[in-house]
Amino acid sequence: MFRLPATLLAAVTAAVVVCAPVVGAEADIPGYREYVALGDSYTADVFTSLPPTTEFVPFNCDQSATDYPHQVAVALRVAVFRDASCGGAKTDNMAGPQTVPLGVNPPQFDRLTPTTDLVTVGIGGNDLRLQELIDRCRDLGTLLPGASTSNSNGCQDSRDAFAALVAATTPKVTAVLAQIHERSPRARVLLVNYLNAVPIDGKGCPPSLPVHDDDVAYLASTMAELNTMLTRVAAEANVELVDTYGPSLGHDVCRSPEDRYIEGLVPFSAKNPQLLAFPFHPNAAGAAAQTRAVLAAITER
Length: 301
What we know:
This protein has 301 residues and is an alpha/beta fold. The protein has a single domain (6-300), classed as SGNH hydrolase (Rossmann fold). 34% of the residues lie in helices and 10% in strands. The protein is built from nine helices and seven strands. The strands form two sheets. A five-stranded parallel sheet has the order 2-1-5-6-7, with helices on both faces. Strands 3-4 form a two-stranded antiparallel sheet. Helix 3 crosses helix 9 and helix 6 (159-183) packs parallel to helix 7 (213-237).
């Protein structure tokens, strides 16, 4: 959902992280021939490996060669695979192009064909402006010795605005699912929701999460509301929902480097370079969790 500052990009692109794909039991996986992945940076998994792959999208889509679509494609042994996911993508970028600093990602729907038989899509977070919300809640003053973490930073003033965005985004996600079916009528479509990023107990953890406790609880409620909306849309559209939110509870930015699926303000742990990720985005463990959830959904039917 978010963009990496140029200074941080220069610092992290010197490292290359190689992550082993998560491959399921191939004998139990149904056969698919043409798999297309659509979505934003929670699909692209920004910087779980470096440099970003440009096989399917421009460089500044920040797409990882080990994101969950790539891992699912390996597990399924599909003959044709296209990953259209791009950091910063909104629902409008499914049918329309997305301009990024070093190019243009064509409409993600352009990768769909009448013969596509499997589609995963994860979208909606950028329509809700979650980056702006986190920026408003963030307070670097919580990093100071003796600073209070109990007072709100005022970001909860946006509650009504967020609710309005949820209401406006709901029909957009519904339309995305309908248009996928129109372009690829044979496809099995899986709507993948969002990993949980912040503690649901409302306790911040500077420096990873420099947010007042009251506002941590608010951010947690917005993540839950986003995923509740996606669950409702999937049910109404008769589309399968892949739940990554539930399995990710307890793996938020405040957990140990070995346990977290999402990285905090400090983008990676020196103890485990495989956790390299853009702040508040899935790391390698998060991508693996997403892969497990998608493969489990595929094999359950």
